[in-house]
Amino acid sequence: MPIAIVLGTRPEIIKFSPIIRDLEKRGTDYFVIHTGQHYSFEMDKIFFEELELPEPKHHLNVGSGSHGEQSAKMIEGIEKIIDSEKPGVVLVQGDTNTVLAGSIVTSKVSALLGHVEAGLRSYDRTMPEEVNRVVSDHLSDLLFAPTQNSKENLVKEGISDEKIFVTGNTVVDALFQNLEISQKRFSEKSVIPDGKYMLVTAHRQENVDDPTKLKSILESLHSLSENLNVKVLFPAHPRTVKMMERFLLDKPLGVEIIKPVGYLEFLQLESKASLIVTDSGGVQEEACILNVPCVTIRENTERPETVEAGANALAGTGKDKIIEVASSMINSDRKWKNPFGDGKSGKRIVNICLEKII
Ligand code: UD1
Ligand code: UDP
Does the beta carbon of 186 lie inside 6 Å of ligand 2? Predict the structure, then answer.
């Protein structure tokens, strides 16, 4: 019985890449279902090209829509494929609507559901991601928790210890596998600014769909460029660009907004930055692994390990606090240890899946 991988967004493609590579190397029977939640070249195809991943066997082309509309189309499409392919294990990764749909379908068939990056909790149910990850965790048969802390979150919710495996996070595998390649390809011919710069990403629904918060974030970036005397580079998610247009918010002075870049170029941008300001989950992790200080423009994080390590600080979305936290973080000693594992998580996850299928 094959292993099925359900993915659909930028971070899922990146974080599943070590697992896909390992399955390819072993010649394991597997297939990929791409829901099409992300579809723009720079949010999707570029990662398949850069990471040399095979074309997905199935593509649902679901595209954008409201949560219900998007999830419903995915559920319908995934169900048909799972019914005909009859996989032994279905893997989902993270906390997107793609994860929710893959989990709901798999929970009603005989295949085992494996959740990669299980047990993360922001304890903030206003985030669609928190709802998705809680549902997926409670439906899963195999929970691949990246850290001991994420395992403890699951145990506290009554999930049986026997189903939980602390594997590390495949974000480390992907970064280790690609950092040198990214250096060779992009350390010179890239959009990397000369001198000190701050790298920014923002796309969370609760931040960018709220005109007051988005305006405050943009104003803070302008102030930071002046107060910290740094350039500000902001590869903007299409959702953020759409919302800036909708709310008639101009590009702030001193901030360079560009299209999202590929993973290889982004790794270079991250590793050479003086500071990273973000609301992304994956970017918080990567900043921590690369020993670059991070300011998270949210009130909470499901990655508390980064804060405990001293690599990350929460600033919310208010201007004064962002400036205060960023001014302090930019002078961090950068000596923390990466809490997300040794870069062998993908292999561990595949080993466990193969044992369970037999
Ligand atoms: C989704 C995930 C979020 C994850 C993020 C990764 C959910 C609920 N949210 O958020 O957890 O952090 O992906 O980036 O699953 N768009 C494009 N091109 C694309 C994709 C999106 O232009 O390829 C635009 C569309 O206007 C769309 C909007 O971005 O309406 C939002 O896309 P969507 O996939 O709904 O949510 P994300 O914000 O990307
Ligand atoms: N990323 C990228 N190009 C960019 C911005 C981010 O390749 O312009 C990568 C980044 O390295 C990380 C992932 O995208 O691995 C994070 O995705 P995102 O922030 O969209 O989602 P989240 O992690 O918040 O779910």
Answer: no
What residue owns the CA closest to ligand 1's atom 1?
96
Its pTM stands at 0.98
Right CATH number for 184-329 from 3.40.50.2000, 3.30.420.40, 3.10.350.10, 3.40.50.150?
3.40.50.2000
- Annotated active-site residue 203? The verdict is yes
In the block, tokens 């990929």 appear at 32
The tens place of each residue's pLDDT in the chain, 358 residues long, gives 999 999 999 999 999 999 999 999 999 999 999 999 999 999 999 999 999 999 999 999 999 999 999 999 999 999 999 999 999 999 999 999 999 999 999 999 999 999 999 999 999 999 999 999 999 999 999 999 999 999 999 999 999 999 999 999 999 999 999 999 999 998 777 788 888 999 999 999 999 999 999 999 999 999 999 999 999 999 999 999 999 999 999 999 999 999 999 999 999 999 999 999 999 999 999 999 999 999 999 999 999 999 999 999 999 999 999 999 999 999 999 999 999 999 999 999 999 999 998 6
127 lines ligand 2 (CB under 6 A): no
Kindly state the tokens that stand for 24: 């390819």
- Pick among 3.40.640.10, 3.40.50.2000, 2.40.30.10, 1.10.10.1150: CATH of 3-169+342-357: 3.40.50.2000
Q: Using CA atoms, how far apart are residues 350 and 18, in angstroms rounded to an integer?
A: 10
- The finding on whether 71 has its CB within 6 A of some atom of ligand 2 is no
Closest residue by Cα to residue 151 from 168, 135, 139: 168
Query: Strand 275-278 and strand 294-296: pairing?
Result: parallel
102 CA → ligand 1 middle, Å: 17
Ligand 1: atom nearest CA of 99 is: 15
Report the SS3 class of residue 340. coil
SS3 255: strand
